[in-house]
């Protein structure tokens, strides 16, 4: 059975991230997508203001959480999945290719021996095309790699949550120069999304508004095909790859990439505390490409 989902967005202006609560009004069952844990880079402190906004919405609308869905292991914010789970329940899920990302970053960070790159840090690993329920609403997990090897989109009724694969039409597409990223693969993933019905609502994970416009996060497949500056109809794979590689070479690494990924490959769990009771994050020196 399928039904129309209710979608509530939460925009975090510090990381330009959009989190979502997707719910079935008939059953009051819900999924939370890409929740944010606030992190102050200067002090090393985490707070839960962003995730608490999501929790407040769940309480006010008396929603029960079935799923906490990650579109990928984010490089620009720490995941608030564990905090949401602790207070609202739900299963933390991501695509099964997170194992590849974990293996890559276990080497980069030289993570503890007990950290296994097997996806066991998550409650569920989605396969390509796997269906699942949010109340009476049938959702489908879509593998859309390219930004990272493990990116997933979630098709929920007439809406698709695309993570970092596509941005708003006047922003374009995600970068493809992180470890395991690939511009050719990203192009094919974008075209797959753009083959969905034209009226499909597209919800993005980030917005970086140009020309002073207000943040936005909702568009349609038809609008993307007509107006996306990187991926509109008529752009060839070769043209996209040349543009993406040239552009990526000019981009700085995200401010929070080093602290965030070592948390996010654990499903939002912090690394084990040292014998003094304090948890530490690792900063690998000279391990990632330097973009100037």
List the helices and strands and how they pair.
Layout: E1 6-12, E2 17-24, E3 29-33, E4 36-40, E5 45-47, H1 49-60, E6 64-69, E7 78-79, H2 81-88, E8 91-95, H3 98-109, E9 124-126, E10 131-134, E11 137-143, E12 152-156, E13 159-161, H4 183-194, E14 201-203, E15 218-220, H5 221-227, H6 237-248, H7 257-264
Parallel strand pairs: 3-6, 6-8, 8-9, 13-14
Antiparallel strand pairs: 1-2, 2-3, 4-5, 4-7, 10-11, 11-12, 12-13, 14-15
Question: Quick one: overall form?
Answer: globular
Strand order of the largest sheet: 1-2-3-6-8-9
Number of strands: 15
Rg result: 18 Å
CATH H level, superfamily name: Ribonuclease Z/Hydroxyacylglutathione hydrolase-like
Distance between the termini: 52 Å
Unreliable segments of 5+ consecutive residues: none
Major sheet size, sense and barrel closure:
6 strands, mixed
What are the secondary-structure elements, in order, as H or E?
A: EEEEEHEEHEHEEEEEHEEHHH
What is the class in the CATH system? Alpha Beta
Tally of helical segments: 7
Supply the number of structural domains.
1
Q: Any idea of the CATH topology?
A: Metallo-beta-lactamase, Chain A
| Average pLDDT level | 96
Approximately how much helix is present in the residues? 10-25%
Structural class: alpha/beta
State the CATH architecture.
4-Layer Sandwich
